[in-house]
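Collaboration report, partner site 2.

Our partner group contributed sequences for two proteins of shared interest, and the home lab folded both. The records are reproduced in the order in which they were received, starting with the first partner submission.
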Amino acid sequence: MTDATLDLDALRTLLADRYSIGRQLGRGGMGAVYLARDLQLDRSVAIKVLPSEFASQPDLRERFLRETRTAAGFSHPNIVPVFAVEDRGNVLAMAMGYVEGESVAERVLRAGPLTIKEAVRLLQDVGYALAYAHGRGVVHRDIKPDNIMLERATGRALVMDFGISRTIAAAPTESRAGLTRVGEVVGTPEFMSPEQASGDQVDGRSDLYSLGLVAWYTVTGVLAISGETTQKTLVKQLTETVPPVSSARADLPAPLADAIDRLLRKDPVERFPTAESLVEAIDAAQLSAPDVPLPVRLFQQNGKSYVVNAGMVAVLAVVNYTRAEREARLDQLMTVSVAVALEFVLLMTIARQARTLRSLGFDHGALRKGLRAIMDEGDEARAQGLTVPGVARRRRIRLFFAGPAFLIGLYNVIAGMARRVEYKPGYFSLSRSGATLAIFGVCGMVVAAMLFVIDPYRRPILQRIANAFWGGPLGALLMGGSRTSQMSSGITRPKARAVVAVARATAKPVSAKSVAAPDGRLDDIECRLRVLEQRLDSR
């Protein structure tokens, strides 16, 4: 048995009364992390166990316990919560929230640099977490890709190890690059601020510099500053200017590149003064994905359903028309009439929904912007799905076999139809073997075609058709307005009900004499509000 196994067995014995220790999640310079089950609360947790050489030193032990209790008082959606500290003799462990996902370092190592949207969200999420901590007088001092988790289900970034990096001081011996050093200088040299490297007193701006190095790494895939030894890396942090991030990745939006470059200024005064100002700068630049209102999302789904239903009606009409006897003109006329009537009903139904959307304050420009945003969200989700190991390879194999399957099916159809026998002019019979070949051939062609068309990692054809329809002049006509609208920027107005609610909440009794309302405009506004209110209440 290895030493790691012995340590794990001892840990399981010591914590058996509270936790069921499972597999190891990771190991670093600050100890190992294990997946465990909290037996009392019946939930998954991550147990971080400090190395015995740290836990055995009374002063470090006391500082660790004190700072960890401080971190346990944090409650923020972008900070991994600390649930408990286990002090069991020579074992000092901390129970944290278990994040189903991977660290930023693992994500970049697995799939390469982050997309622009992912990088923007990372800066926002970590910025919110740092603003929360700095507001409570806590400086992380070890912001690095390994200490930022990405939740798989939502993409949310969570900062972990708050308070630990500032409590452990370091051994004079040099450890391998990338691990937290313990001694007079606290932190990770590759992501350490100049003032931290020099041993000066640090504040929240030091964390912002580290966040800038993390952002530089995530968008380029390489470290901004590194060295062969710890000393050389620290010297570079003190003396070398980090090159502009746009020089390593040219497709970054200028506001994002400027924000990262500002975070990496050597003088703390030249950086963002607070984490809140960083988030505000990103928000002001509108770098994050637009927030698509719920009515637009619902209309997009209905619009796509309309395209599907209209297409099915057209296909069935064509099939019935061609199958009708040549002399049966009445049957053909009935087929066309029913199809036209159904298409008209479907079109009027979706047109009414489009006009309702417009009455809620969303014009054609806002609709087009929302449809593009939904399409971009789908593209991002599909690209993220392809980064999962094995998915892209299985997709290539599936598409590779779809082509030959289609050709084999076509050959079977041709071979089966070749066995037809004409028993009277214009009428054919087909043998059992020929029918079997034709049926299997058609099924093979349909399956192969569906593999090409319904590919979950390609833009859906129906969605593209629906977006083109509603984004075009016909969509603008059905909404009851031209393509050039008063809201060309795509910013939507609030709902009428919200306007009425705000008017009710903020209105104060005002006499007619106290307000100058030329031409009866005040009465007109009140009348309009009453009409809107009556319409909404009647729904």
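Second partner submission, folded after the first:
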Amino acid sequence: MDKLLFGAAYYDEYMPHERLCRDVELMKRAGVNTVRIAESTWSTCEPQPGVFDFSHVERVMDAMEAAGIGVIIGTPTYAVPAWMVKAHPDVLVETKQGPLRYGPRQIMDITHPVYLYYAERVIRELMKRTAHRTCVIGFQIDNETKHYGTAGPAVQAQFVKHLRREFHDDLDAMNRAFGLDYWSNRVDAWEDFPDVRGTINGSLGAEFEKFQRGLVTQFLSWQAGIVNEYRREDQFITHNLDYEWRGHSYGVQPDVNHFHAARCLTIPGVDIYHPSQDALTGAEIAFGGDMSRSLSGGNYLLLETQAQGFPDWTPYPGQLRLQAYSHIASGSCSVMYWHWHSIHNACETYWKGLLSHDFAENEVYREACAIGAEFERLGSRLVNLRKRNDVAILVSNESLTALRWFPIRATAAGSGDLFYNDVVRWLYDALYRMNVECDVIWPESEDLARYKAIVVPALYSAPDALLERLERYCEAGGTLIATFKSGFADEYVKVSDGVQPRILRRCMGVRYHQFTLPNGVTLQGEAASGADDREAKGFMELLIPEGARVLARYEHPAWGEYAAITRNRFGKGTAVYLGCMTGEAVLANVLRGALTDAGVQIPGQAFPVILRGGVNDFGRRVTFCLNYSADAQQVQACMTGRELLGGRAVAQGETLTLAPWGLAILEEA
């Protein structure tokens, strides 16, 4: 990118009256240089089969082109028109709960040949009218795509073909891998394969979910292939990936493998929504940004984030600006809001944009104007920020799925309340609050040796080859930090019949035969030293050291002989094992000790001041000092150079005062 993109989604189709000229005027005043259009309006663009009307798209392109504002064209394929469903009702997805009804978006079977026929046709017609336009800088394929639970007969037939390839037509091998003899689930002829939606077998169910994620990869690659036939070399292809949703963006997406799906993109894109007001910590911004940046090893586009959003998201003064720079600090080349205006009908009426329903200037819009002016002035120094981190966190879609089938805190009464993403965020958030930046890696990621430390949360389902790679990484000098439930089952979610933690046993220097749930259990030992909260949380493995040093034991009349947290020298490296969840202070003690010994620099400053940075296009180090607090905070300048926002010189060690919800950006001399 040659500049930071700043803008919003813009829907001329939704306006209650003519607004385009006035909106362009307000956009220019706010420094908006990019809009996203067209993604949501298939029925407007094609009101009847083969009858196309792109007048809304064309008039917006005309206006933006005249104003010098770039346009990202979204393919409109994630919300099907009513005429298609009327003529072909079976394009609606058939899920575990049965066929869905028309109305919401994203209710179609993304593998259905009729849907794909019409989708290809509308994409091609849209591309013919947009790809040649000078204002069009790139294309967004579809929108927050997932498999939507598609599990109809055609999809299941494809799944059986997948299994035949996976197991080389060997039914006995498949039955063994999945343990299908249990409860007479064995399949002895491919043509007898049952409806997977009814399975009680977690191995088979997890394999089907993995297959469903693969359908998303295929679908996005198919769309990218069509767009590639039309786009110019200077136009990008992106997609707005999103994350597990817990009222905001939270964790690894269960229904898409981002690492696989992003391969067809020229630059990854992401949607990140987060708590606001007093609940704003920046952790979701950082987590989503680090995940997205790590997909390509470069940069990414923030395609959607909130301006106002819901009432509890209305930002305090200064927060919109803080959030914008937090995205840039993670390596984003853009900040784009959903959306420009607040709509007046339908289910997202109160998901407010930069402008409220009255279209009048407001505090959020005025703060956006300040951001836009700063982006225009400083963008060349902040775009394409390059990072090289010493720490990585390994995430696994397969483990996420497996731990939904076999929840960590499952009891006879139910599945409990602790899942894979809780463990991921427990570790990630601790690193974030310590100001240790990290990359995200996947089971297929190569070059583990580039990292001084790798953090492995609950890697429940993993092939032997991955565990062996992690063991070799540690033996060669790396620091491996793993948690409970790691290495427990293979890639088909078959639990090992060996002593746990299986292949990692030698590396970690511990074994265990039993696990339980904490009930009045506290931790004692050096890892718990000075911690107010010494409670063992969530889940606990009863660790028996085999050469490992004990950092914490369980303080409990029944479990007191067992270790909770250990550390082991293995070859040239170090392995740390967390047999339970802990409070924030205990975890910080463990991580600080392991990372310091690994040679990872840990700043003296911690949350609520967040430090993030990288190297800009001028080869200069840039550090963002972000205050996630309603109180002023002080920070020591980590370099001699210039504070970009204020334009003044700073000396290393100089004390800087950050305003409430404020920031400083330092560029080295």
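Feedback sent to the partner group on the second submission included the following. The chain has 17 helices and 31 strands. The CA atoms of residues 359 and 490 lie 56 Å apart.
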